[in-house]
């Protein structure tokens, strides 16, 4: 899946065009949200903007962090929700029992693999999460898109995009032994972001027309006009 979608040959469009494309989707894995994705993106971004006005990169990160869910669109193969949303986790080492639906890993051949079922697996202690293979989902896809299109967002932004669904790590503290010092610094920002990603959802509607000019200025600052997807 990663190899196929990593070709980035499905579409060419701007960040805002992708935001609008998501307007028809609701994340079925999110029990607190029954609005289209654009509502959640703007709620998170505006809440962070209110509390952290000087961190414009974090405002934009909140806006784009879920854009990988465009994989649900027919243009991208209309992938089923189970393969796009939900928790992510490392591959190539033992599955933590803190991962949601852990019991189903018993059906995976990796579960009893002599290397993959060990603590470090194919990795070494403190190797850095950039060297770890993460399960496929919208997080990984958007990370690939941003990186390949040469975003100028700081490393902490890419860390947030890639790992915001890695709950076993940032909620349960699992797999911290794979983190290096840069990961630990970036984790501070992910923890800040999570408060808004998880708890900013409300029924208060945000006027897209009012906030769009601000976010368009950030998109222009940190991304090219058109991206390969």
Tell me what portion of residues adopts beta-strand conformation.
Answer: under 5%
Distance between the termini: 14 Å
Count of alpha and pi helical runs: 9
> H/E series, N to C?
HEHHHEEHHHHHE
By DSSP, the count of extended strands is 4
Which range best describes the helical content: under 10%, 10-25%, 25-40%, 40-55%, 55-70% or over 70%? Answer: 40-55%
Please state the CA-atom Rg, rounded to the nearest Å: 17 Å
Shape: globular
**Which regions are unreliable across 5 or more consecutive residues at pLDDT < 50?**
none
What is the average per-residue confidence, as pLDDT, rounded to a whole number?
Answer: 93
* Coarse structural class: mainly alpha
Query: How would you write the strand order of the largest sheet?
Result: 1-4
Largest sheet: 2 strands, antiparallel
């Amino acid at each position: 899946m990663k190899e196929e979608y990593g070709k980035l040959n499905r579409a060419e469009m701007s960040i805002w065009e992708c935001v609008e494309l998501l307007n028809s989707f609701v994340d079925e894995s999110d029990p607190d949200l029954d609005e289209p994705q654009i509502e959640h993106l703007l709620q998170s971004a505006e809440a962070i903007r209110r509390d952290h006005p000087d961190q414009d990169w974090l405002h934009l990160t909140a806006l784009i962090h879920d854009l990988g869910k465009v994989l649900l669109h027919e243009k991208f193969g209309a992938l089923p929700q189970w393969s796009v949303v939900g928790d992510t986790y490392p591959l190539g080492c033992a599955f933590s029992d803190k991962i949601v639906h852990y019991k189903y890993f018993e059906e995976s051949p990796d579960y009893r693999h002599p290397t993959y079922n060990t603590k470090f697996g194919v990795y070494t202690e403190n190797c850095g999460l950039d060297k770890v293979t993460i399960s496929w989902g919208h997080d990984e896809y958007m990370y690939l898109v941003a990186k390949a299109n040469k975003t100028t967002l700081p490393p902490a932004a890419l860390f947030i995009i890639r790992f915001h669904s890695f709950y076993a790590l940032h909620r349960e503290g699992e797999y911290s032994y794979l983190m290096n010092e840069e990961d630990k610094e970036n984790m501070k920002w992910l923890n800040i972001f999570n408060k808004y990603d998880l708890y900013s959802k409300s029924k208060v509607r945000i006027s897209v027309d009012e906030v769009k000019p601000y976010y368009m200025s950030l998109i222009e600052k940190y991304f090219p006009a058109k991206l390969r997807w």
